[in-house]
Specification:
Ribosomal_bS18_CS; Small ribosomal subunit protein bS18c; RNA-binding; mainly alpha; 101 residues; 30s Ribosomal Protein S18
Length: 101
């Protein structure tokens, strides 16, 4: 095969269809915590549509459901337990260092 023809050939990639994260029977609702919790990061942020592999309509419904659950205090607005642990450790060690001097 000529080099000029090789440039136009696309490399073959295996196409593996991923299963959709929301099945057709699942109802997107603020009370469905098992479904909603899959679309929230460890920090409590709503994950992007690309990461979730959702359609635009599904992402909008998930976002509204998460916000409703937060307002009704079913979900926390922030999950910063690790930040508090780190700041406590820093203040403890800083306090010990100043006392030893």
């Amino acid at each position: 095969m000529d080099k000029s023809k090789r440039l136009f050939l696309k490399p073959k990639r295996s196409l593996r269809r991923r299963l959709p994260p929301i099945q057709s029977g699942d109802r997107i609702d603020y009370r469905n915590m098992s479904l909603i919790s899959r679309f929230i990061s460890e920090q409590g942020k709503i994950l992007s549509r690309r990461m979730n592999r959702l359609t635009l309509k599904q992402q909008r419904l998930i976002t509204i459901a998460i916000k409703q659950a937060r307002i009704l205090s079913l979900l926390p607005f922030l999950n910063n337990e690790r930040q508090f642990e780190k700041s406590e450790l820093v203040t403890r060690t800083m306090g010990l260092r100043t006392r030893k001097k």
